[in-house]
Design brief:
It is a single chain. The chain has about 325 residues and is mainly alpha-helical. It folds into two domains: about 1-185 and about 295-325, 3-Layer(aba) Sandwich (Rossmann fold); about 205-290, Tyrosyl-Transfer RNA Synthetase. It is built from 13 helices and five strands. The strands form two sheets. Strands 1-2-3 form a three-stranded parallel β-sheet. Helix 1 (about 15-30) links the parallel strand 1 (about 1-10) and strand 2 (about 35-40). Helix 3 crosses helix 12 (about 270-295), helix 4 (about 85-95) runs parallel beside helix 13 and helix 7 (about 125-140) crosses helix 8. The longest helix is centred in the C-terminal third of the chain and has 29 residues, at about 300-325. The chain starts with a strand and ends in a 5-residue tail after the last helix. The model has no long low-confidence stretch (mean pLDDT about 90).
């Protein structure tokens, strides 16, 4: 049986972009790839590469786990767990630091962006975290990893690290392949469509939170940046704001952008935005209701305990073999 592994970092709030670009795609993959098992983790160790408020981090970790379940994950086929509860992931992350070079880490976008901004408080863990990310994936011999366009670089480095390890120590880790959603992989900021919608953005008008009420959702959609052309067409270069809204509509309804464009060719931006707001509310309201039911339930704790036990058992056995491969320890 093939295995798909994915994780999400509990920083900021979950956004519509996270749902359309990752969570919904993960649910659809489960429906499509019935011969696969799914490992899904909350990457709380990655969150602490920047300073976090402990109580808030713990709450967001549970919020995200509950939200994934509310979005329709198949609970029988998903191993859902918290990264920090599997110590072998950080252990392997350290080992993999010895199989990745500083030049490779310096080329990673997140680190380069902070250097370009001349930030002075860059932690060493932010520099080396791609090794931990690789460990998150290859520890479980993932065959596939769902990634958006902006995450390809991380997966390519993971593949490089796995291949380098295998070349030196003999075949041991599975080299994962990417799974890239065709639509909705990259949802942009509503106020600045040149950048990705971010759960860490300080301007809350730019993103729709999965926890927003209906009035907030409608207000943010209606205030989204468009242009002065007044023509509904998909032109990311000249009409990036409108193109983003069309992508959101298509991702929410599973219609093609061409179908939506034809449907609104004689209508105004206001009519289009009003309809889009109702579409987004219609998608998020039942999810929010399901989230409220599960977030403080014993069921959530039981699911996370079960996921931890399964992931921990596999990780322990794999790491025992890994340490024997590289010659550490007494046996």
């Amino acid at each position: 049986m093939k295995r798909i592994v994915s994780g999400i970092k509990p920083t900021g709030t979950l956004t519509l972009g996270n749902y359309l670009g990752a969570i919904k795609q993960f649910v659809k993959l489960q429906q499509k790839m019935t011969d696969c098992e799914f490992y899904l983790f909350i990457a709380d160790m990655h969150a602490i590469t920047t300073r976090q408020v402990p109580a808030e981090l713990r709450k967001r970790t549970l919020d995200i786990a509950a939200m994934y379940l509310a979005c329709g994950l198949d609970r029988e086929r998903t191993v859902l767990y918290i990264q920090s509860e599997i110590p072998q992931q950080t252990e392997l992350g350290y080992i993999l630091q010895s199989n990745v070079y500083m030049g490779e880490l310096e080329r990673m976008t997140q680190y380069k962006d902070k250097v370009a901004k001349q930030e002075t408080s860059i932690t060493s863990s932010l520099f080396t975290y791609p090794a931990l990310m690789a460990a998150d994936i290859i520890l479980y011999d993932a065959d596939y990893v769902p990634v958006g366009d902006d995450q390809k670089q991380h997966l390519e480095l993971t593949r490089t690290i796995a291949q380098r390890f295998n070349n030196y120590y003999g075949d041991f880790f599975t080299v994962p392949e990417p799974l890239i959603p065709e639509v909705g992989a990259r949802i942009m900021d509503l106020q600045n469509p040149e950048k990705k919608m971010s759960k860490s953005d300080e301007n809350d008008k730019g993103y729709i939170s999965m926890f927003d009420d209906e009035a907030s959702i409608r207000r943010k959609i209606r205030s989204a940046v468009t242009d002065s052309f007044g023509i509904i067409r998909f032109d990311p270069e000249n009409q990036p704001g409108l193109a983003n809204l069309l992508t959101i509509y298509a991702s929410c309804t599973d219609q093609s952008i061409e179908e939506i464009k034809d449907q609104y060719q004689d209508k105004s931006y206001k009519e289009f935005k009003d309809d889009l707001a109702e579409v987004v509310v219609g998608v998020l309201k039942p999810i929010h209701d399901a989230y409220q039911t599960i977030v403080k339930s014993q069921e959530l704790q039981d699911i996370l305990d079960h996921g931890r036990d399964i992931a921990s058992d596999y990780a322990f056995k794999k790491m025992r073999k890994c340490k024997r491969k590289i010659g550490v320890g007494r046996k």
